[in-house]
Design a protein that fits this description.
Distance between the termini: 45 Å
Number of strands: 0
Helix content: over 70%
Structural class: mainly alpha
Strand content: under 5%
Largest sheet: none
Number of domains: 1
Shape: globular
Radius of gyration: 13 Å
Length: 86
């Protein structure tokens, strides 16, 4: 089992939380399929949470729970910002 901290560091974690599209595009080492690209385009925070849970749940469950918190909070904040921008 791979530990998150043996593959990534704090900079990647911060980037995935704040700028998930850019971080996944530039630094993710996960093979992307069609569904992952659709997630990257439409719901990037949720995609980060799903990938984190898939790959790191066994070794870092707290990190995965925090990723899900950011997924719901980040997606909600983006939606509110988009509605206000209109």
């Amino acid at each position: 089992m791979t530990d998150f901290w043996s593959v990534h560091g704090w900079l990647f974690l911060l980037g995935a939380a704040i700028f998930p599209r850019i971080t996944m595009l530039l630094f993710a080492s996960v093979p992307f399929g069609l569904l992952a690209w659709a997630g990257w385009l439409f719901v990037p925070h949720l995609t980060v949470a799903v990938l984190a849970t898939t790959y790191y749940w066994e070794t870092n469950p707290l990190l995965c729970i925090i990723a899900w918190f950011f997924a719901f909070a980040g997606t909600g904040a983006e939606s509110k910002f988009a509605i206000r921008a209109r």
